[in-house]
Structure formats: C-alpha cells, structure tokens
Amino acid sequence: QVQLVESGGGLVQPGGSLRLSCAASGSIFSINTMGWYRQGPGKQRELVASITRTTGSTYYADSVKGRFTISRDNAKNTVYLQLNSLKPEDTAVYYCNALIATINQNAYWGQGTQVTVSS
Fold first, then answer.
1. Does residue 108 contact residue 1 with C-beta atoms inside 8 Å?
2. Is residue 9's pLDDT more than 90?
3. For position 2, what pLDDT does the model report?
C-alpha cells in the first residue's frame, strides 16, 4: 500500500509565499519522477513542475517559471514545491504525483491541498 500525503496549502495574499510538501510511504522500492499538478476552478488539471530521481532534472510550466521551485529529498521520499510571488491565478488544488516502483511501477496521486491567493 502506497500513500502520498500533501501538506502546506492555505490562504495567502498576492505576492506571498507557500511551501508544499508531499511525503510517500508504504512498500516502496524506488520513486522515479515526482511532480506537482494543479486544478483551478473550472479548469483542467495541469502539470506545474516535475523532477527526476537520478539527475534532478526539472520541468516547469511557463506560467510558474521563475516563481516556483521544485525539489526532493530522496532519503525522505518527499517532494517540495516552493511557491513565491503568488498571484490570484495560482489559486487551485495542488496534487502531488509520483511514479513509484513496488512490484510494478505505477503513478500515484495525493489527496490534494488547497492554495488560495486572495487579498
């Protein structure tokens, strides 16, 4: 049984910052690419950022480049997303996603954490 548990969401004013965390637990052999998606009101879920396991190569959506930073701690099976210079359009439920190898490799999702940017 594998679980992804997110934390760190909340209400923040425009220009503010938040740090999201996502910890994986269970019978894990290895965790490959980890990422963060978001789904705003009335919008489709979109990939925000991702990071590979071995090289730490990162990807960012154009809308968050220069403002968000993804990182991971492989020893803790945890991925982080630092959100800076937040805008109202960043308001969304943020979901953690990870490719995890147990017996097979599957994609797992967290339950989501709400980020609301409003004055």
1. no
2. yes
3. 94
